[in-house]
Structures are given as structure tokens and as C-alpha cells.
């Protein structure tokens, strides 16, 4: 196979940490797109450009148009990365922008679906193995890693390994694997020793650095390791439970604060509004007086405990009363999100404060902003939304929410039937978001009491009972569920099982409606994390200069 010219820039989809370091060491410009904010790849210092965006064809095409990469590397991405890459290839986007796929190829991706595998029931009780294979430009193939399902009765024998290795090499040739890597699954009958292929995946997990080396033109003989080696891993089950969100009384707004206190001065890292499990920064419904009360309450908590270092506080604001729900003298799980949203390395700053540094010292060093903090965002600042372990950033809340939801659970629906069941206390606040859904073309299904209220205000609604709605949800006919009564458990369980958006508060529903409206209007844009942070710093510097000129 002829050697490909080495690329000068590469777009990495997913959190390929080791591969990204290989590309950087080789002098390539690295752009990362990955919505997971908790990985090292999401650190703005890791890549030249970092996009915390949902991985889908439309978004990735926008990023390709902005960054103009020579190559695309997805060997460590998820299913969304595979689907997106195939869509970009088939639509001609990769060809139009001159982007070469490295680390795998489209034929190998398509072979994942086409490769015949044995039915799972036929290999029950058999030993399971996965081989990660790599191939260089000269066609040389090696097994980089073997993962074996833990079995106390015994592990892989030399003969069984050699059989799997030979078959695996033939599979890579059959699917036309180019320079890069793949993973092939096997099952071995412990009695007869019969070996069957159970799956093919054009991605790797443990050998991504080696795959990156080969993808940019290195030969197997010139990189380490260049020999087969083993990693034995125990298979763990992944259990998921039915989500039950925290419920606050009345019109309460939940607020989460990450702060630093050095014994005399308080630094608000970020003040987040929590909307049904989703964190928003800056908060969208809190005014200046609310933020001032939160700042003073956080200062009082820090002073009263005599602490020094990071502080995480959870508040509830209801009917004008600010209540402390929980406080912890440590960094919260929201710190990675706050750091990226504000452009301030809050964890590093917290460690320095714990070691004795003062807030003023860190401002002088440039680790913290010279003036202001995460509790005072400049007007027009971008909005960041955290949904699970992913986040979205955009100029408006609706677009940021839609991005985060798409990355966490898939895109929000833009048409179809929605089921609504509201408690009596929500009859006033639910009217505007429901009308917005109707204006957007959605069809409303509702319980009897909710349907009566909607009809009285001129909103068409079809009365439906739980058994029929469950069937419609399971059949994919209902695209969104709202139940603030918490009585339609069967419907909510069906929605969760089918991956259909399900909300238990009007605030959560209203947020989703804003996201749907943003999608309908095509308002979402893409911006790298580095650009977002640079803009924040520029605005802060201008604000500081203006403040200084007035004093």
C-alpha cells in the first residue's frame, strides 16, 4: 500500500487522549470535538482547538469548515462518531473539504454492521475475548492487546490464542482495513475449543497511541510496542435505575455555587441554576439582588465554619427566601464545568488556596481574573449548560440547552405527539410552554384534568389514558412526555426505556421548549473552547480598563 502524505492538522472525534498526544508530538495541529467535559481531552490546554459540541453530521461539518483539517481520526470515538463519519463521507463533505480519514476507513466501519456474527445465545457459557489489531502502511498486522473476560477456572491457552490471531488477521484483510486499528471479538467453547467470531469494531481503546503512530505514516517496526501483549480485564455489568429527580416545594429555584475562600476573601467560581438536573451558567432567572444575596450567604457560611479552600453550596430560592440545602468544604463535581464555562482553572486555584495562597495573590499571578469573578458575567456572555457529563455552549440558552441534550440523550424532537400530565399547582405556569409547542406544530395528548384546562384556554388536546399512551410511547408515536404529578409511572418508565425526553417539572419542560425553538430556527453555532475563553478574558480586560478609567 502506498504511503499517504503526512497530515498537518487532524480533527479528533472522541476522547483519544493518548492519540492526541502522539499527534501533538508529531507537530500536527489538533482539533478535538467531544461533548464529554470530564476527560483530559476537554482541557483547553490539551488541543489547539476544543469543541464541546454534540457529535452529529451538521455540527461536525461546521467545525470542519472552520478548522479545515487535513485528516479525521475517530478510532476512539463512540457510535455517534462512527455514524457521523459515514454520513459525512456519503454526503461528500470529507471529499469537498479534502479531509482524509485516518486510523480506520469507511469500508471497515461499514463492515462492522455487515460482518456475520454468531447469535449471542449460541455462545452462552463460552469464554469471551477481544483482540485489538493494528496494521501499518506496508500491510503488516500485529495484535496490540488481548482483553479476556475474567474466568477463575482458566485463561487463554497458546493454541487458542494462535487460532484467534490467525482468524483475526484474515478478518482485517477481508474487510480491507487500512493503516490503523480495529477490535475483533471471539468466543471459545471451553469443552471443544471451537472458536467463533462474535463481532468487529473499527475502533480501539487501549492501543490508540499505537494506532495514531501508524495512521500518520510510521511503520510497525519503528514504534513501540511492536509485539503482541496481553491485558486481562474482568467484565462488569452496567445497571441503570429509574431516575427520580429531587423535588423542591412550590416555585423553588435550585442554585449550586462553587467558591474559594482564603480566610478573608471570597471568590465565587460559578453560580449555577439547576433545572431538573441540568446546570446553567450564568443563571438565567436570577437578578443582581439574588446574586448579591448568594454571595453574602456563601461568605457567611465560609466565615462561620472557619474553613480555607474550596466550598460547594446548594441553595433553594423560594418565594423570596434563600435556604441552604447543603454545604461541603470541598470542590464539587461541577468544577470541571465551571472551569470551562468561565475560563478559570478552579481546581488548580483551590489547591493553591489550600496550600496557603490568597485570592489576591492568585489574581496578581493571573491564575484568577484581575477583577470580578464567576458570579458577575459581562452582558452578552455565552451561556453554558451541563447535562450529565456533557456540556453545550452558545450565545443563547435555548441553543446551548439543545446542544447539551443532543450530546447526552440525542436531539430534541421538532414534531410529533407529546403527552402532558400537570399537577393543579402548575396550571398557570404550563400555559405558555404548551402554547409554544402547539405553535411549533406538535400534537397534544393529555390526561383528563390537564386536557380540560387546555381546552378552556383554546389549546386543542386529545384526552388519553395511561395504557394507550404506554403503547404509543413503546411504538415511538409519542416524542416527549411531561408528568409533574408523578402518577403516570408506567408512561415515564416507558419513555425512559425508549430514550424519549421525559420531564417532571414545568421549568424542565420550558427549558426543553426553548431548546426546540432554537433548533427550529437554526440558531446554534459552533465555537471552540479556546475562542470562548479568549473572548471572556478580552471582555474582562476591557471591563477592568473601563472601571479603572472611571476611578
Automatic annotation (TrEMBL):
Organism placement in taxonomy: Bacteria, Bacillati, Actinomycetota, Actinomycetes, Pseudonocardiales
Listed GO CC annotations: cytoplasm
Superkingdom of source: Bacteria
Annotated organism of origin: Amycolatopsis decaplanina DSM 44594
Presence of keyword ATP-binding: yes
SMART domains: MGS (SM00851)
Ranges of residues in domain ATP-grasp: 293-355
MGS-like domain ranges (all copies): 410-539
Protein's name according to its UniProt entry: Carbamoyl-phosphate synthase large subunit
Catalytic activities: hydrogencarbonate + NH4(+) + 2 ATP = carbamoyl phosphate + 2 ADP + phosphate + 2 H(+)
Amino acid at each position: 500500500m502506498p504511503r499517504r502524505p503526512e497530515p498537518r492538522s487532524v480533527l479528533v472525534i472522541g476522547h483519544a487522549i493518548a492519540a492526541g498526544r502522539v499527534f501533538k508530538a508529531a507537530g500536527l495541529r489538533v482539533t478535538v470535538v467531544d461533548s464529554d467535559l470530564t476527560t483530559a481531552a476537554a482541557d483547553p490546554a490539551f488541543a489547539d482547538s476544543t469543541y464541546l459540541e454534540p457529535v452529529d453530521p451538521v455540527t461536525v461539518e461546521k467545525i470542519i469548515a472552520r478548522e479545515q483539517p487535513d485528516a479525521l481520526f475517530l478510532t476512539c470515538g463512540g457510535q455517534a462518531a462512527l455514524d457521523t463519519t459515514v454520513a459525512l463521507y456519503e454526503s461528500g463533505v470529507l471529499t469537498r473539504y479534502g479531509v482524509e480519514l485516518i486510523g480506520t476507513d469507511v469500508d471497515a466501519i461499514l463492515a462492522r454492521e455487515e460482518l456475520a456474527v454468531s447469535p449471542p445465545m449460541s455462545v452462552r457459557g463460552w469464554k469471551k475475548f477481544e483482540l485489538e489489531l493494528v496494521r501499518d502502511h506496508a500491510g503488516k498486522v500485529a495484535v496490540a492487546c488481548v482483553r479476556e473476560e475474567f474466568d477463575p477456572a482458566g485463561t487463554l491457552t497458546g493454541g487458542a490464542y494462535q487460532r484467534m490471531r490467525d482468524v483475526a488477521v484474515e478478518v482485517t484483510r477481508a474487510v480491507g482495513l487500512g493503516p490503523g486499528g480495529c477490535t475483533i471479538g471471539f468466543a471459545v467453547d471451553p469443552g471443544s475449543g471451537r472458536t467463533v467470531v462474535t463481532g468487529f469494531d473499527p475502533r480501539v481503546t487501549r492501543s490508540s497511541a499505537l494506532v495514531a503512530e501508524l495512521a500518520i505514516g510510521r511503520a510497525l517496526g519503528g514504534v513501540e510496542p511492536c509485539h503482541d501483549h496481553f491485558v486481562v480485564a474482568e467484565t462488569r455489568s452496567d445497571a441503570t435505575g429509574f431516575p427520580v429527580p429531587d423535588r423542591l416545594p412550590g416555585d423553588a429555584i435550585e442554585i449550586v455555587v462553587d467558591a474559594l475562600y482564603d480566610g478573608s476573601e471570597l471568590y465565587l467560581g460559578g453560580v449555577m441554576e439547576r433545572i431538573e438536573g441540568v446546570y446553567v451558567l450564568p443563571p438565567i432567572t436570577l437578578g443582581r439582588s439574588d446574586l448579591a444575596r448568594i454571595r453574602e450567604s456563601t461568605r457567611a457560611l465560609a466565615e462561620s465554619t472557619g474553613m480555607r479552600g474550596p466550598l460547594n453550596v446548594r441553595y433553594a430560592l423560594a418565594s423570596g427566601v434563600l435556604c441552604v440545602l447543603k454545604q461541603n468544604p470541598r470542590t464539587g463535581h461541577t468544577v470541571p464545568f465551571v472551569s470551562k464555562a468561565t475560563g478559570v482553572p478552579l481546581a488548580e486555584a483551590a489547591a493553591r488556596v489550600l496550600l496557603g495562597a490568597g485570592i489576591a495573590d492568585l489574581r496578581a499571578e493571573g491564575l484568577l481574573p484581575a477583577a470580578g469573578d464567576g458570579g458577575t458575567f459581562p452582558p452578552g456572555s455565552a451561556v453554558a449548560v451541563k447535562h450529565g457529563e456533557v456540556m453545550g455552549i452558545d450565545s443563547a440558552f435555548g441553543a446551548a440547552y439543545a446542544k447539551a441534550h443532543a450530546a447526552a440523550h440525542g436531539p430534541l424532537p421538532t414534531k410529533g405527539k407529546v403527552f402532558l400530565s400537570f399537577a393543579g399547582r402548575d396550571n398557570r405556569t404550563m400555559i405558555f410552554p404548551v402554547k409554544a409547542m402547539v405553535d411549533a406544530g406538535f400534537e397534544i395528548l393529555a390526561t383528563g384534568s390537564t386536557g380540560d384546562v387546555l381546552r378552556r384556554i383554546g389549546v386543542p388536546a386529545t384526552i388519553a389514558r395511561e395504557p394507550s399512551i404506554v403503547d404509543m410511547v413503546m411504538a415511538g408515536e409519542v416524542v416527549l412526555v411531561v408528568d409533574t404529578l408523578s402518577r403516570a409511572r408506567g408512561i415515564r418508565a416507558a419513555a425512559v426505556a425508549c430514550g424519549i425526553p421525559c420531564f417532571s417539572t414545568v421549568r424542565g419542560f420550558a427549558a426543553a421548549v426553548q431548546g426546540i425553538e432554537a433548533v427550529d430556527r437554526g440558531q446554534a453555532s459552533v465555537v471552540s473552547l479556546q475562542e470562548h475563553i479568549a473572548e471572556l478574558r478580552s471582555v474582562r480586560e476591557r471591563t477592568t480598563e473601563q472601571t479603572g478609567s472611571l476611578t
